[in-house]
């Protein structure tokens, strides 16, 4: 495939390959902005500017200064260190069998807990809560209308909607009422430290375990990180003994 020359700046050819290499350095979600003709033109202008300034830097002998040499040494050190780390960790792999074994031994970690989706109305007294329930039951107000009219919780703006939640996310009394209530039935007043609630459960989802195929990639990544961390620590310990470290 032809490597088309897009520009020549200060005697240096800037090719399509150069442009694509720069684009690929960006995170994947940002690359799209450079795929259009306009985006590529803007990036090409940046590369041209880079080459012009690089040429100018050489012309005024900045590459002969101590500052330049010190920065180049620092960059070289970073690159060499990064390459050494990558080489140390490169041979660590996780097989499907190892990942599956970890999944079977830790299935609870990959399960979705039971949840309920509910709305609520929060007021100060039990009497007030009972009266509001009456209005909802006899059809004077819908639950959402009553929430907007009476509730002291900020969720009133969404008709009392709390969304979906699992056990452990709400105070115990409220949680018990929500998980034990029938769908579509307004509860009797529920007392908590915040006041009295009327709860309307709209949906319930049973706990479910994710299959190995669903979590395979995350299991492999987790195991890989654990092993890399362990290997890195072991290598550092060996190198400290080999080369010596004095902490002051």
Automatic annotation (TrEMBL):
Report the domain of life of the source organism: Bacteria
Looking at the record, the residues that make up the PpiC domain are 113-203
Q: Which UniProt keywords apply?
A: Isomerase, Rotamase
In which organism is this protein found?
Answer: Clostridium carnis
Quick check: keyword Cell cycle in the entry? Answer: no
Q: Which Pfam families match?
A: Rotamase
Entry keyword tRNA-binding: no
User: What molecular function does GO assign, one term?
Assistant: peptidyl-prolyl cis-trans isomerase activity
EC number(s) on file:
5.2.1.8
Name listed for the protein in its UniProt record: PpiC-type peptidyl-prolyl cis-trans isomerase
EC class name: isomerase
């Amino acid at each position: 495939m032809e490597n088309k020359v897009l520009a020549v700046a200060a005697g240096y050819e800037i090719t399509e390959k150069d442009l694509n290499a720069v684009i690929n350095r960006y995170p994947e979600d940002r690359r799209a902005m450079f795929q259009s003709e306009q985006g590529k033109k803007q990036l090409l202008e940046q590369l041209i500017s880079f080459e012009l300034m690089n040429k100018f830097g050489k012309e005024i002998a900045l590459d002969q200064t101590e500052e330049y040499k010190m920065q180049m040494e620092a960059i070289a050190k970073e690159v060499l260190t990064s390459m050494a780390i990558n080489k140390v960790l490169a041979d660590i792999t996780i097989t499907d069998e190892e990942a599956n074994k970890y999944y079977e031994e830790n299935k609870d970690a990959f399960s979705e807990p039971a949840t309920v989706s509910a709305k609520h109305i929060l007021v100060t007294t039990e009497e007030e809560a009972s009266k509001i329930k009456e209005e909802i039951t006899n059809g004077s107000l819908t639950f959402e209308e009553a929430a907007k009219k009476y509730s002291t919780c900020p969720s009133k703006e969404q008709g009392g909607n709390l969304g979906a939640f699992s056990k452990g996310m709400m105070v115990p009394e409220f949680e018990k009422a929500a998980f034990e209530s029938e769908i579509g039935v307004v509860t009797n007043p529920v007392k908590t430290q915040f006041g009295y609630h009327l709860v309307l459960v709209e949906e319930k989802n049973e706990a479910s375990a994710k299959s190995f195929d669903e979590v395979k990639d995350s299991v492999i990544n987790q195991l890989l990180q654990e092993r890399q961390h362990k290997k890195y620590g072991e290598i550092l310990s060996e190198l400290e003994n080999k080369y010596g470290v004095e902490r002051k």
